[in-house]
Design a protein that fits this description.
By secondary structure, the chain is mainly α. The protein is built from 9 helices and no strands.
C-alpha cells in the first residue's frame, strides 16, 4: 500500500506561520533591543498564538539562532544568483568594485538590527556572533573572486590579498557604525558607498609593503648629550 503524505495544507500553513514569526522578529529588532523583546511581542506581531511559537521554537534564543540561519541561507542564495561573472560581464573593473561595495553596504543596512543584536548577545558569552562573522567573510571572498576575474596583466594572488585588506577595513567600519554611533560616515550617510569604494580601489592600486625578511638600510641616529640641570 502506498502511503500518501498527509495534511499538505496544514504543513503549508505551518511554514507560513514560521515565516510570519521570523518577519515579526526582524521588524521588532529594528525598533527594540533583543533583550527587551518578548515571545509574546513576537507572537502578537505575527498575529499568532504564543503556543504556535513554542510549537516551532524552544525559546527566544533558539528563535534568534534560526533567524540568523535563515538570513545566512538567503544571503548565500542571493549572491550566487545575482553577483555572478555572467551578470558582471559587461561591467568595468571599477563598476564591479562599486557593485560589490554597494551590495555590502546595503546588506549591512538591511540587517543592521540583527547584526547589532548578535553583537549585544555575544557579550554574554553566546556564539551567535560567529554565523554573522562567517556571513561577512563569505560575502568578502565572493566579492574578491568576482573582482579578481576582471583583472588583466596583474598578479592575481597579490591583488586578492589587497582586496581582502580593503574589504576587511570596510567591514570594520560598518560593524563599528552599527555597534556605536559615529559622526564620520555613519551607516545612513548617502556618501558612505562612495568613500568605501574609493578605499577598496586604493587598496587595489597601492604597492605591497616590502617583505620583512628583506634587509633594510640602516639609519644613523644623532645622539645629543644630555645637559645637566643647572643648580
Amino acid at each position: 500500500m502506498t502511503l500518501v503524505k498527509a495534511f499538505p495544507a496544514k504543513q503549508q500553513r505551518s511554514e507560513q506561520t514560521r515565516e510570519k514569526l521570523l518577519q515579526a522578529g526582524l521588524d521588532l529588532l529594528r525598533d527594540s533591543n533583543y533583550q527587551d523583546i518578548s515571545i509574546a511581542q513576537i507572537s502578537n506581531r505575527a498575529e499568532c498564538a504564543i503556543g504556535s511559537f513554542y510549537l516551532r521554537f524552544r525559546n527566544k534564543e533558539a528563535f534568534f539562532k534560526y533567524l540568523i540561519e535563515s538570513i545566512s541561507e538567503t544571503l548565500r542564495a542571493g549572491v550566487r544568483a545575482d553577483l555572478t561573472p555572467e551578470n558582471a560581464k559587461r561591467l568595468t573593473l571599477a563598476q564591479t568594485v562599486r557593485l560589490c561595495v554597494d551590495h555590502y553596504v546595503q546588506t549591512n543596512r538591511h540587517y543592521e538590527s540583527v547584526i547589532r543584536a548578535a553583537l549585544q548577545y555575544s557579550i554574554n558569552g553566546s556564539d551567535d556572533w560567529q554565523p554573522v562573522r562567517d556571513n561577512g567573510l563569505m560575502l568578502q571572498y565572493h566579492y574578491v573572486d568576482l573582482i579578481v576575474g576582471k583583472l588583466k596583466r596583474v598578479p592575481k594572488e597579490a591583488a586578492r590579498q589587497q582586496l581582502l585588506v580593503g574589504f576587511q577595513i570596510l567591514s570594520g567600519h560598518l560593524i563599528n557604525s552599527i555597534a556605536h554611533p559615529v559622526n564620520t560616515l555613519p551607516l545612513n550617510d548617502p556618501d558612505l558607498s562612495h568613500w568605501l569604494f574609493q578605499l577598496v580601489m586604493h587598496c587595489l592600486k597601492i604597492k605591497p609593503p616590502v617583505p620583512a625578511n628583506v634587509p633594510q638600510k640602516k639609519t644613523l641616529l644623532r645622539t645629543v648629550p644630555l645637559k645637566k640641570p643647572s643648580p
